[in-house]
Every structure is written in structure tokens, then in C-alpha cells.
Q: What sequence folds into this?
């Protein structure tokens, strides 16, 4: 019996040791650090670390932008922050309510967690079911993860933390409540999931691709010098905006044409994806999802009430 | 896949051109449903019956399904579809007649990852079975109705939205019917669903006959491919005896 136990322990330990996010903060601007996730889908191999999380070390303390996909990630994030600064965390800003951005909140219960009012509402409504689906996709990495709602309502405008003036923008394209954060002191734009770069965008809560396109124009018009997308590599040029605009326009037109042609969803998900999007991770997978989320609206626009005799 | 399995499949391939007795999906239920739904009649698993669904259900309450038996055009008597691991597996029993292609699309609910089947009975008495697998987080059959949360939904029951879309040699007719399609699995709400539909031509001739089952999603979406011109009517009936009639120009 004892041998069996020891054997099981032996099997279990390496697995536990593997479950380490190994977060390595990378400095991308003055006082500004990035934890770049992969552009893959949620998987047991990555623990859900598919997201970009950042923090700014200001004179007044550390401002954290998004908390990651799990309690374990949130805790690892705090350790990563402590590895580069002795300053305390003073504020969390959540860009939106999606689980990969907000399920690390448990590790930041001791500081104000700020979000747009509708982000809190959406996290309250959908948080548990989103966490459930992450448990399903990434497994034990999620252990002990629970939804913690934001404790502070953010309004658009400038918030100052030490020497950093952060301009908060309330936009809607990705989820209906999307916070973009422009650091006026460094020129870094934290676009949240309004900008996906080299990773297909996701649409489960999008109010519509038109609204999203308008947000892209708003963001691109800011005097940024560096863009941090919610997913994918950072950029100092306008490539992420151009890719977003191209992809959103293509998707919108595809769905519009399909509906006008009477295509069914199963036909839509088989649509060819243009060669120029070949480098974008997960475009087929996300097309299948987006057709489910968005196509019914396009279909109804192409249908008429049929009079009863 | 291990090497032995690949070898085995490679050996089987020459015999498995279109129709085969080897089940293309992993199923524990085939024998049961073969007896239950097809009365143990002769059958083949046949890739010419295309059963098309997404690889996973993004919304388990609205899973698109396309049944394409056009390879058997002119020979199809009946098409019967089901979701093996659903608590209520039956989806649709479709009998296309002259002027309607053996093709149908609709949306369904699934309760968990499951094999899907569409069995096509041809005039020689053989069932040609198309299969696919769909993955799902689940819960589509037992989730509370979305329709019932919308105020005034009762006023809209039976309203039909739709259109006709020319597609070369045929035209596509699509309809969306306002109906909660209660499947009896949500506590306190008894079965209330559209169970019959008839597609009629401009002379009143029956072009297609459908029996619908509660695995069909709420606010059902149906699409048919029709040859020739002329107005089409869709007459729908639910299990409470309501009848709805829509004219498709």
C-alpha cells in the first residue's frame, strides 16, 4: 500500500511542477511591463495563458491591466510583479469581462479592481459559466478559481497614478463594454481585446462589427507610439489596426453576402478564408464561432415577414 | 492514431469506396437505433449522404445541421435524422417529393457531444446512413427557453420570417418560425412544439412532408431547395393544434 502511495505521489509531482505559468515580465516602455501570452486557444498545455497582461510601475505604486485566466495565474502575476519592483500594487484595471482577462482577480482582492459598469454587470451574469467552460478546456490549472467582481466603477477620462496619466476610453465593439487605456506619459496604448493581432478576433458578445470598426478608428486616431493588443504581439506601427480593419470588413461582407444568397450556417463556416489571413492563428475556429454569434442577425436582415393567407 | 490502426484503415479503404458496414463514428448506440428507428432494415453507412455540422457546438441550443442527399436525387423516399446521445434523439423525418431536392437544413439542440445520423431511405428499400460527430460542452436540451424570457412572446407565435433566394438551377427557400419549441425537459413547462410541416406548390400539390421533433431548436429555422418557379406555401402545425400558414413568393 505504502509503495503504491509513493508511486502515485511520484507520478503526481512532476505533473504539479509542470503547472507553472513561468511568467517573465518584459519591459516595453518606461515603467511598463508586458506578460505576453500565446496566440493559441485555451488548452491544458498552456493553462489558458493566451492573453496579454501588463503592469505599470508608477511612483505611487503598480497599476495592473487585466489579471489573467485563473487564480493560479493571478498569483503568479503578483510574484512576477514583485520580481521587478518592491512597490505595492495599488490598482487593477480590467479591460473587459472575458475569463482570460478577469479570472485572476482573486489574487488582487486587497486592491481596488476597476472596470466599466457594464463589465461588472456582464461578469456577474456570465462569469460562472465562462469559468466552467475554462475548467473544461484547461483543467486543473483552474483549481480554486472563482469569479471576483470589480470593486470600483471606472468612468472615461484621465486617471493619474504617480507620474503616469492614463486616459480611459469606454468603447463597445468586442463585448459591449470595452476599456482601452492610453498612457499619455509613455504613448503606450493598451487596446484590450478591441485589437487582436495575428490571432483571430472573438465575437461572443460583440454588439456588431460596425461598432467594432468605429472603435478601431477611434483607437488608431490616438497619439500612440506602441500598441499592446489583447492577444498577439505588440507593435510600433499601425499593422494591428490595419489587420483588424481588413478582417472585420471581410467578415462583415462575408456574412452579409451569405445572408443575401440564402446560405445556411453550415455553408458559412466552410467559406474560404483569404490567403492574406493565413498568418492569423485560429481563423477557421473563430469563423465557426462568429457565424454562430453573428449570422442570425444578418439572416434576419435578409428575411421578410411572410403573410399568412 | 497508432500505426497498426492506420495499416488496418489502409487495408479497408479499397472496399470502402462509398458504402460500408464499418461505422465511421464511434458509437455505442448504433445497433439500438438501427432496431428502434430503422426496424432492422437493410442499411449501409454511406458517405454520399452528407451530414454537415460544425465540429463543435458553439451554442448547444442552436446547432446548424445540413442534410445533403442530392447524390440520390429522384430515389429518396424518406430522410430520418437523430442525435444519438440526446435525451430526445429524434430530429426530423423529411419526405421530399417532386420539385424539392433531397436536401434540408435546420438547427437543433444537443445535450452533449454526440454522433449525429441522417438515414436516407431509397426506393430500393435500403437505408443509406450519413454520420458525423459533434463536440459540445452540453446542456442544449435542458437550458431554459430564450423565447419565453422575451415579453409578449405569445403574441408572436407562428409568425414566419423568410425569403426565397435564387441559386441557379433551383431556389433556396428559408423560413424562421416564432415558436418556443418546448421539449418538456424544462421544469414546469410541458411539451409545446411544432410537430408537422408541409411544403405546398402553387397548385396545392405536396412538395415535402416533415415531422419535426423537440430536438429542433426554438424559433425553428428550415431551408429547402426547390426546383422551378411559382409560389410556395408552408403549413405548420404544433402539438396543441395551432396551425400556421406562410406564403413564400
A:
Amino acid at each position: 500500500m505504502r509503495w503504491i502511495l509513493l508511486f502515485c505521489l511520484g507520478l503526481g509531482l512532476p505533473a504539479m511542477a509542470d503547472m507553472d505559468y513561468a511568467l517573465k515580465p518584459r519591459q516595453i516602455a518606461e515603467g511598463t511591463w508586458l506578460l505576453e501570452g500565446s496566440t493559441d486557444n485555451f488548452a491544458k498545455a498552456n493553462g489558458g495563458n493566451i492573453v496579454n497582461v501588463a503592469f505599470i510601475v508608477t511612483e505611487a505604486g503598480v497599476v495592473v491591466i487585466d489579471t489573467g485566466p485563473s487564480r493560479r495565474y493571478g498569483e503568479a502575476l503578483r510574484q512576477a510583479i514583485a520580481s521587478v519592483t518592491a512597490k505595492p500594487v495599488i490598482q487593477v484595471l480590467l479591460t473587459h469581462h472575458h475569463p482570460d482577462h478577469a479570472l485572476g482577480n482573486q489574487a488582487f482582492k486587497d486592491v481596488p479592481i476597476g472596470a466599466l459598469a457594464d463589465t461588472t454587470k456582464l461578469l456577474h451574469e456570465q462569469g460562472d459559466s465562462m469559468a466552467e467552460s475554462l475548467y473544461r478546456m484547461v483543467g486543473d490549472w483552474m483549481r480554486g478559481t472563482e469569479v471576483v467582481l470589480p470593486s470600483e466603477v471606472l468612468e472615461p477620462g484621465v486617471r493619474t497614478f504617480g507620474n503616469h496619466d492614463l486616459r480611459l476610453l469606454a468603447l463597445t465593439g468586442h463585448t459591449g463594454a470595452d476599456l482601452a487605456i492610453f498612457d499619455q506619459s509613455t504613448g503606450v496604448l493598451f487596446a484590450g481585446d478591441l485589437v487582436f493581432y495575428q490571432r483571430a478576433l472573438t465575437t461572443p458578445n460583440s454588439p456588431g462589427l460596425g461598432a467594432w470598426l468605429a472603435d478601431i478608428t477611434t483607437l488608431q486616431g490616438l497619439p500612440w507610439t506602441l500598441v499592446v493588443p489583447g492577444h498577439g504581439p505588440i507593435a510600433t506601427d499601425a499593422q494591428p489596426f490595419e489587420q483588424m480593419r481588413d478582417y472585420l470588413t471581410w467578415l462583415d461582407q462575408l456574412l452579409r453576402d451569405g445572408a443575401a444568397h440564402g446560405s445556411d450556417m453550415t455553408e458559412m463556416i466552410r467559406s474560404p478564408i483569404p490567403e492574406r489571413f493565413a498568418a492569423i492563428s485560429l481563423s477557421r475556429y473563430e469563423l465557426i464561432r462568429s457565424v454562430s454569434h453573428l449570422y442570425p442577425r444578418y439572416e434576419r436582415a435578409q428575411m421578410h415577414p411572410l403573410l399568412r393567407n | 492514431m497508432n500505426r497498426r490502426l492506420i495499416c488496418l484503415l489502409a487495408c479497408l479503404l479499397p472496399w470502402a469506396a462509398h458504402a460500408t458496414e464499418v461505422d465511421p463514428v464511434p458509437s455505442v448506440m448504433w445497433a439500438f437505433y438501427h432496431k428502434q428507428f430503422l426496424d432492422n432494415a437493410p442499411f449501409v453507412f454511406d458517405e454520399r449522404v452528407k451530414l454537415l455540422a460544425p465540429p463543435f457546438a458553439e451554442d448547444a441550443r442552436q446547432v446548424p445541421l445540413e442534410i445533403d442527399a442530392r447524390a440520390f436525387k429522384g430515389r429518396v423516399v424518406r430522410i430520418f435524422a437523430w442525435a444519438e446521445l440526446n435525451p430526445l434523439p429524434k430530429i426530423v423525418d423529411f419526405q421530399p417529393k417532386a420539385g424539392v431536392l433531397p436536401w434540408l437544413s435546420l438547427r437543433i439542440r444537443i445535450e452533449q457531444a454526440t454522433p449525429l445520423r441522417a438515414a436516407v431511405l431509397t426506393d430500393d428499400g435500403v437505408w443509406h446512413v450519413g454520420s458525423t460527430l459533434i463536440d459540445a460542452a452540453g446542456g442544449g436540451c435542458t437550458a431554459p427557453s430564450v423565447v419565453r424570457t422575451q415579453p409578449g412572446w405569445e403574441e408572436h407565435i407562428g409568425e414566419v420570417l423568410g425569403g426565397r433566394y435564387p441559386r441557379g438551377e433551383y431556389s433556396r427557400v428559408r423560413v424562421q418560425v416564432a415558436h418556443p419549441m418546448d421539449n418538456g425537459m424544462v421544469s414546469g413547462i410541458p411539451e409545446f412544439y411544432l410537430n408537422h410541416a408541409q411544403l405546398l406548390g402553387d397548385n396545392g400539390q405536396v412538395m415535402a412532408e416533415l415531422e419535426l421533433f423537440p430536438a429542433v431548436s426554438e424559433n425553428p429555422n428550415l431551408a429547402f431547395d426547390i426546383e422551378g418557379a411559382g409560389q410556395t406555401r408552408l403549413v405548420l402545425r404544433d402539438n396543441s393544434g395551432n396551425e400556421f400558414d406562410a406564403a413564400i413568393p
